[in-house]
Amino acid sequence: MTSATFLLHVQDEALRREALEVLRHSVNSVPFQEHSGTWDSLIQQIGAVKPDVLLLDLSVLPLELSVAIRQLRFQNPRLKVIAIHATADPHVILSAMRGGANEFVHCPLKESLRSALDRLALGDEATTAARGKVIGFLSAKGGCGATTVSCHVAAELQNLTRRSVLLADLDLTSGLVGFLMKTPSSYSVLDGIKNLSRLDESLWKALVIEHKPGLSVIPAPAVYSRWDHPDEEQLIQLLQFMRTQHEWVILDLGRSLNSIASAVLGEIDQLFLISTLEVVALHGLKTIVHGLFEQGEKLRLVLNRTPKTMNISRQELEKVLGRSLYAALPNDYMSLYQSYSNGNLLDAHNRLAQEFSRFASKIAGVQPMKTKKKFALFG
Ligand SMILES: Nc1ncnc2c1ncn2[C@@H]1O[C@H](COP(=O)(O)OP(=O)(O)O)[C@@H](O)[C@H]1O
Ligand SMILES: [Mg+2]
What we know:
The structure is a single chain. With 379 residues, the protein is of the alpha/beta class. The protein has helices spanning 13-25, 39-49, 65-75, 90-98, 109-129, 146-161, 177-180, 189-194, 201-207, 232-245, 259-264, 279-291, 314-321, 333-341, 351-364; strands spanning 6-9, 32-34, 53-57, 80-85, 103-106, 133-139, 165-169, 209-212, 215-218, 248-255, 270-275, 299-306, 325-330. The protein has two domains: 6-128, Response regulator (Rossmann fold), CATH 3.40.50.2300; 132-364, P-loop containing nucleotide triphosphate hydrolases (Rossmann fold). It is built from 15 helices and 13 strands. The strands form two sheets. An eight-stranded mixed β-sheet has the order 8-9-7-10-6-11-12-13, sandwiched between helices. Strands 2-1-3-4-5 form a five-stranded parallel β-sheet, sandwiched between helices. Helix 13 links the parallel strand 12 (299-306) and strand 13 (325-330). The mean pLDDT is 88. Magnesium ion binds next to helix 6.
């Protein structure tokens, strides 16, 4: 954890001095900043500075710890929290762990804080070693093709990279990934969330369906009520777990900027917004791009169902959207219809399938498998 940044929010003077002593003399002399203002200004600072670790004095919290941690992680989903308290009071320890703190340390800090730092450093190495990429697909409005693109790109990524790929349906209300991938009725993303505390490799293997070797699928629930809505922190934890198990995690995020898509944004490496040329879809696309202004560098625009002839050039369209297009996928309704009716994804020789393959190869940064029959839109 040599490059990690620390923020210290400890008001008890004796605790503060002890903590500073440990930080200054730790092996790699941890870089840190201190915060001594109000809770609201701490929240702001977490959002602005995005430290990796917060040392938080429990005695001065103005609100319940679990709520406090949720507010902190809203600003920085990856924040690790070391809860500090003068004594090893079992009630405080239990509430710190239940509240979502990563570590609990008490006086004397010399030993306990140093070992907590070591444990966090080890955990960090383990997660960086096994950090899959998370790619999200979001439809500018329903029907633009987020599900179709997610399923084909997931299959193509596996073909191209031969790595472990997970396709997860986070369109909890109307997810169709399970249907398109022909997964027999099975566990869903919600089962992953319900079992978060005991998720490990073997339980995960029991929850997902192996569509083919190297391509696992976890569908949306068959029945969903708003009472099942997972909270943000649980979703983030599930994604963080998924990326320890798979090299690529492909998410179908449903349509428009819904609450699930917003909740997981921080965990996503690349977010593809899928639109068609329909005016309503393009309007939806612009609204999402505007709403995600701060996440701008993650956004990629994809035009789907692109007609052979368009009455607007690619350059003109890009000017209207204020961004370049990452890909333009052709329109081939009949082939999709036939494949889905036969219970398959598109055949590899199909032109749209080859465009999905090119698209996946661009995401993976590898050479496309088939280069024949280039789709030449926009000249
Ligand atoms: N490139 C394409 N060409 C023709 N039809 C498409 C294409 N992509 C998707 N479709 C069709 O559009 C419809 C909506 O696609 P879907 O993937 O379910 O969209 P979303 O998940 O965004 O609601 C489906 O009937 C699908 O077969
Ligand atoms: Mg869909």
